[in-house]
Amino acid sequence: MTTTKQQLATALAETGYVADEGLATALVLTEMLKRPLLLEGEAGVGKTEVAKALAKLENTDLIRLQCYEGLDRSDAIYEWNYQRQLLAIKAHEGSGETANAIEEAVFSEKYLLERPLLAAIRQDKAPVLLIDEIDRADEEFEAFLLEILSDYQVSIPELGTVEARSIPRVVLTSNGTRELSDALRRRCLYHYVDYPAPDREARILLSRVEGLDAKLALQIAELMGNLRKEDLAKVPGVAETIDWASALIGLGGRNNLHDQRELVFETLACVLKTREDQARVTKDVTDRLLGKVA
Q1: 277, 227 in Cβ contact below 8 A?
Q2: Which one of 6, 24, 75, 153 is CB 3.0 to 4.6 Å from 163, fit for a cystine?
Q3: What per-residue confidence (pLDDT) applies to 150?
Q4: Residue 62 in contact with residue 69, Cβ under 8 Å?
């Protein structure tokens, strides 16, 4: 694993992720201290992409646990394939085997369904474990997750304790929809992912959008920065910027944005995702925002 933040930032950029200095430092520390990294920030700023880029950089698997309200152990760790177990029990009927023998047969690895947390600790090569949008899960699940992240082992009553073959690199993300527990925050290193500055967003665009030149990339990034300062119901993230830049290039917009104001306005559907926002950002507003772009 790369050991300096400069080397790490360079390596991540080669995978298509442009990290700021703070994030690069946090990622180096997670490897050094063997601690999970909690990334917090608005939706669309690239938190999930950090885990994807890290897995690509380390040439390892990305295992993702998408959190939601009501998420429980069976969804996150393991569950038994009950349908196959019932079929197996019926197949054993009349075979003369004891109940204990049948029970041992159906509660074996063959009928175990791995879920993300169990799969992550059973890899021979340490994967990147992405626990996405942990703030959407219940507080009870958050408390249970702390046990897994502390011991990296899972107890399965029918099989015993499964200890980690390798310790995964853990990245948790939160959109801030609810306050996370102090215990979870203490367990993790922390970095807040904000909307990128125009120069960094331009670098992101250049790494993701083919056929985009540096001047146009910076203009798009500056316009997006101005747009985010408007009173919007849903502030567009970096993913929307990439979509918009791709749309402009696809429709022939390869020059100065000032020379194609109509195209800029017509493609705002890529970044404005509510009826209210589209009504608010009129042609006059678009021209005003463009006027602030170099």
Answers
A1: no
A2: 153
A3: 86
A4: no
pLDDT tens digits along 224-267: 999 999 999 999 999 999 999 999 999 987 778 998 999 999 99
Place of tokens 């408390």: 143
**Closest by CA position to 46, among listed 185, 204, 187, 267:** 204
Q: What is the pTM of this model?
A: 0.87
Contact at 8 Å (CB) between 131 and 137? no
**Is residue 236 a contact partner of residue 247, using CB atoms and an 8 Å limit?**
no
